């Protein structure tokens, strides 16, 4: 064992958490130098799914004239159906709490099935335009398929796909061109749509935690909600109705700050500070411009380095304090 592990093991012995015999067994096990390849194998499985779907897409694109659209759709449907068949065969069914397959490889089969299914829906709409100009319909169907896969098979990757598809559907419903261009500025309807979706995701998360419905999905939903609310509010601070966005951003910052401590999520804490900091600076420049302190411009330029250095110092201090507080709570 290294020095840190030795110190932890000795502290556990001093606190009577483990016996001397157990300490000796731990030291003997550590001396073998055994390490786990679990995460490495999972990463390779994840990469294999992505490479397979990307390779299939490139192969189809380069041979589209030879293969034909109908043959591609049939192939996608067969692969998707086959993947779901094995997933259902090995699944234990729907459970409100966290469950897993007997073998972790089937989680990546669920991911593959979800990607193939959403690709089939999108390709069908692109080729045959079954839903006409209502592009949000196939996107919502893709989201429904991904959410069903996520909740039935308890798969976070499928949940991420479903949430992304849902956000895309909201964007397409508001203004399709702005979604394609990733341009939020000048489109209040899209900003409000993003804020509403973020609030709905927060509401669903709170409902799920109170009813014990896949509570471990909370971080995925909250991450999407935080970025939706943060980006839309920051972009909205430049618009004419900036006080509304400022209020929403302040409320979101407070909520995610408290939630990050409640579920011990450092990512939520960090981005709560980041979005709040960006919003604060935008409002500060607005106030300076409104009051007319332009004659202090030279002083502000000189003070800017100190301001940013101080901000970075406080940011690092806040993260250390967050980690220390949660470590003390776990003890």
Automatic annotation (TrEMBL):
Top-level division of the source organism's lineage: Bacteria
Alphabetical keyword list: Membrane, Transmembrane, Transmembrane helix
Question: Which residue ranges does the record assign to the DUF2157 domain?
Answer: 11-158
Q: What's one Pfam family here?
A: DUF2157
Q: Which InterPro entries match?
A: DUF2157
Q: Does the keyword Membrane apply?
A: yes
Transmembrane residues, as ranges?
A: 43-61, 67-87, 108-126, 132-152, 159-179, 185-205, 217-237, 243-258, 265-283, 295-319
Q: What is this protein called?
A: Predicted membrane protein
Q: Which species is this UniProt entry from?
A: Flavobacterium caeni
**Upper lineage:** Bacteria, Pseudomonadati, Bacteroidota, Flavobacteriia, Flavobacteriales
């Amino acid at each position: 064992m290294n020095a840190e592990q030795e110190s932890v093991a000795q502290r556990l012995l001093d606190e009577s958490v483990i016996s001397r015999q157990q300490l000796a067994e731990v030291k003997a096990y550590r001396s073998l130098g055994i390490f786990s390849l679990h995460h490495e194998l999972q990463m390779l499985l994840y990469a294999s799914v992505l490479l397979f779907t990307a390779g299939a897409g490139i192969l189809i694109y380069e041979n589209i004239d030879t293969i034909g659209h109908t043959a591609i759709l049939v192939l996608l449907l067969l692969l998707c159906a086959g993947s779901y068949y094995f997933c259902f065969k090995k699944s234990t069914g729907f459970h409100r709490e966290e469950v897993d397959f007997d073998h972790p490889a089937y989680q990546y089969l669920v991911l593959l099935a979800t990607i193939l299914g959403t690709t089939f829906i999108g390709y069908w709409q692109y080729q045959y335009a079954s839903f006409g100009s209502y592009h949000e319909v196939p996107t919502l169907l893709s989201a429904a398929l991904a959410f069903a896969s996520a909740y039935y098979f308890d798969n976070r990757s499928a949940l991420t796909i479903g949430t992304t598809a849902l956000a895309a559907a909201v964007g397409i419903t508001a203004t399709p061109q702005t979604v394609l261009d990733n341009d939020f500025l000048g489109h209040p309807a899209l900003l409000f749509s993003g804020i509403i979706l973020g609030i709905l995701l927060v509401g669903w998360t709170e409902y799920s935690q109170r009813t014990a419905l896949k509570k471990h999905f909370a971080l995925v939903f909250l991450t999407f909600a935080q970025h939706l609310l943060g980006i839309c509010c920051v972009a909205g601070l430049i618009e004419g109705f900036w006080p509304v966005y400022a209020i929403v951003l302040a409320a979101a910052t407070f909520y995610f700050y408290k939630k990050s401590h409640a579920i011990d999520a450092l990512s939520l804490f960090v981005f709560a500070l980041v979005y709040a900091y960006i919003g604060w600076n935008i409002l500060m420049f607005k106030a300076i411009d409104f009051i007319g302190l332009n004659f202090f411009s030279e002083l502000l330029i000189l003070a800017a380095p100190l301001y940013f250095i101080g901000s970075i110092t406080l940011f690092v201090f806040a993260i250390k304090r967050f980690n220390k507080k949660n470590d003390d709570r776990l003890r």
